Each structure stands twice: as C-alpha cells, then as structure tokens.
Amino acid sequence: MHPSFCSLVAPNVSLQQLIASFAAQSRQLGLQPMSRVSTADHDSISGGDQHDPSTSSSLPDPDVLTASSLQSQMTMLTMRCRVLQNELVEGQQEQQAAQATMICLQHALHHQKALEHAATKQLQEAQAQAAEASAQVATTFERLEAAVNAQRDRAARNELVQRTLVPLQQEVDKISMLLVSMQDAAPVGLPQKEKSV
C-alpha cells in the first residue's frame, strides 16, 4: 500500500459496486468528489486490475476511499442533513399555518354564504312586496281615475238639470203669484148659490 494514504481496498466486486453507489449518491447530494489517487498509486493498490467500464471517470475512485475523505463527506452530509431538517421544520410550520388559515377561511366562507343566502331571501321577499305594492298602486290609480270621471259626469248632469229646473221653478212661482192675486181680487160678501134640493 502507498504510505501517504490510509486506504480501504475493496476486496471484491460487490464491495466495489457498493462504494460506487455511495459515491454516486454523494454526487447527487451535491458533495464534492473525492480526490483521486494517482494512476501509479492506484495500480500499486489495486494490483493493476481493470475497473468496471460503467464507472465514469468523473466519479470518485470506487476502489479507494480515504478516512479523511470519508470524514469530510460525513461532515458535509451532516451539515446538509441539518439544513434539510431545519427546512423541513420550517416547511411543516408553514404548512400548519397555511392549514389553520385555510380552516379559518373555510369557516368565514361558510358564514358569508349564509349571510348571502339570507340577504338574497330578504331581497326576494322585498321584491315580491314591492311588486305587490306596485300592483295595488296601479289598481288604486285606475279606481281613482274612474271615480274622477264619474264625478265629472255627475257634475255635468247636475248642472244640466239645474239649468232646466230654474226656468221651470220660475214659471211655477209666477203661476202661484197669479193665483194669489186672483183670490185677492174676488168680490167680498157675494151670496153663495143655494144648493138645489
């Protein structure tokens, strides 16, 4: 082994695949790739074995992991976990606040809908009363107009009767005065005719 590294050598393919999977997950979490050992050091450690062709050259060396690299990655992972945990707590608090607001608004909406329904009902009743009152006004106006016409007709007829009555009454008065005059002019003391036996 190279004296400058405390290396963990994968003894078999299964362990190599596990290390490659760990390195890929670390890369997906946004961690910096581990420092690669030199080709000569790698050959001296691995004995010149060929790598799996599926391992990309940009990924960390799946054959060798140093303790310092693992410690660095653990530190970064721990920090990342703390950040995500804090974000999760804040997100849950925001979710609870949003849920409380949603429930409050749902109650407010239910109350406002009830008020709207009551107001609509009152408006409909008021509109019905207004329509009924309008109909009564129209009926009363028609009756009033008929009464005005009847009064006007009756007044015209009464005036005609009065014009006809006045001269007739004057004639009656003249005749009455003539009769009175004739009775006053009759001779006084004239013997009355005897009744025949």
Key features of this structure:
197 residues; 72% helix; rod-shaped; 2 strands; two-stranded antiparallel ribbon; single chain; mainly alpha; disordered N terminus
Helix-strand string: EHHEH
Number of helices: 3
Largest sheet: 2 strands, antiparallel
Q: Low-confidence runs (pLDDT<50, min 5 residues)?
A: 1-11, 32-60
List the topology elements.
Elements: E1 7-9, H1 13-28, H2 39-46, E2 64-66, H3 67-184
Antiparallel strand pairs: 1-2
Descriptive account of the structure:
By secondary structure, the protein is mostly helical. The chain is 72% helix and 3% strand.
Short description:
The protein has 197 residues and is mostly helical.
